[in-house]
Each structure stands twice: as C-alpha cells, then as structure tokens.
Amino acid sequence: MANKTLSGKTALVTGSTSGIGLGIARSLAAEGANVLLNGFGDAREIDQLQADLAKEFDVQVAYHNADMTKPAEIEAMIKFAGDKFGGVDVLVNNAGIQFVANVEDFPVEKWDAIIAINLTSAFHTSRLVLPRMREQNWGRIINLASTHGLVASAGKSAYVAAKHGLIGLTKANALETAATGVTVNAICPGFVLTPLVQKQVDDRATKDGISNDAAKKALLADKQPSGEFVTPEELGALAVFLCSDAAKQVRGVAWNMDGGWVAQ
C-alpha cells in the first residue's frame, strides 16, 4: 500500500456535506486523514455519507452541525474535534453563501450573513485551532476564497468583500506563523459546477430559451477562457499538495484555479 501523507492527521472541512467541501474532504481522506464534516443536509444522507467515506478510505469520519454564523457553535465544534480526534491538524474553511443584488438594493441581513459565514467564521475557526498547531509545530489552514477574492463582479458586493477579506486574513495569519511549521494559504476557484452554479445555469437556460449545455457554455464564455468547469477533485488535489512537505514554504498565497479567469 502506498504511503499516505496525512495518516494520523485530522481534517476539519467546513461546508463539506456537498460540492467543493465534500470533494476536498474526500481527497484528504484518500491521503489517510480522519475527517470532521460540517454543513447542512438531510440527517440520514449525512449519516450515510459518513459511513461511505469511512468504508471507502478506511478512516474515521464524524460530523458536526455547527451554524457557521454562531461563534458559540463554532467553539463547540472545535471542542468536539478535540474530544473525538485530539484536535484539528488540517483546517479547510470552505463554508460560504451567495446573494446577488446591487449594493443599494442589497438586504442588510444578507450582507451580515455573507460576511459572517464567508469571512468571520474563518477567523473563529483559525483562532481556535492555531494554539494546538503552534504547540505541535505542524498545521495547515486552507481558506477557500474565490476568483472574487482577486477580482470583482457587479451585484456581488458582499461576496467580493468577504472573499477579498479572506485573502487578507490568509496573508496576515501566514506572516504570524511564518517561523513555525504551520502554513496558511488560500485557494481561489473559478466556476465549479456546484448546485449553486447549476442553478445559475438553469436560470440562464430558462431566461434565454436555450439548452442546459448551451447555458453552461455561455456562462463559462463570460469569464473562464478554458471553457471548462473546475472540479472538486482538482481542488482537492491542490489542497493535498498544500498539506504536503513539498508545500511547506508556500505561505500566504492566493492560488487561483480558474481556467484562466484572472489571467485576462
């Protein structure tokens, strides 16, 4: 059996019951990491997901339903990780939501929720796991930002602000841990065919009276020169690299995997 680079480590991936988060959790589990899932969904489906991951990758898998807008629940989740696994070695801050409206029409409660989940939750998880990571002189924090952490789009002021802020948090925390065995980095995906993006595709197909495939091509043509979606598996592979010894001097980067979006 090939040596697994994360055997004996524990990874917490927020927002990991589907989409990008689940893809990254699977990739980390494939490298031997025990996994703590977090997110919303049907309880029976989440139970089955835990069982399937544990069986497929021969690792321990647990779940915590912390609401990432609530600091007390985030603290309870980190305590749970300590009680269950001894602590968190790899933290992937992936939880996120989106809402689209011009700033003058943007609902205040939507702004507050997006900033809380997409940015502030990463502050809380990071501050809570860093003491142990410093103590053991090893840890990986990976913040899932976005191309919208590097460039903007109209109608997405809260999301863009949160993701720019997440990259700033990444850089600051990377400098604070630069002389340790802890690294902090961000991944900035372009379009990934998550349920959220599929809804955009469906809406575009309906609005323009075109097929779903044509709507996908039109969406990608707007931003992503490769004409292909980034996949959760590709993002998971990048996360595995950032956890490896080969990436121990990769610190404070905002690594875009975006089919050429930001190169334009």
Please give a structural write-up.
Belongs to the short-chain dehydrogenases/reductases (SDR) family. Its EC number is 1.1.1.30. InterPro entries: 3-OHbutyrate_DH, NAD(P)-bd_dom_sf, SDR, SDR_fam. GO terms for molecular function: 3-hydroxybutyrate dehydrogenase activity. This is 3-hydroxybutyrate dehydrogenase. The chain has 264 residues and is an alpha/beta fold. The chain has two domains: 10-190 and 231-255, Rossmann fold (3-Layer(aba) Sandwich), CATH 3.40.50.720; 192-229, no CATH class. The protein is 49% helix and 13% strand. It contains eight helices and seven strands; from the N terminus they run βαβαβαβαβαβαααβ. A seven-stranded parallel beta sheet has the order 3-2-1-4-5-6-7, sandwiched between helices. Helix 1 (19-30) crosses helix 8 (232-243). The longest helix is centred in the middle third of the chain and has 29 residues, at 108-136. The chain starts with 9 loop residues before the first strand and ends in a 7-residue tail after the last strand. The relative contact order is 0.14. The mean pLDDT is 97.
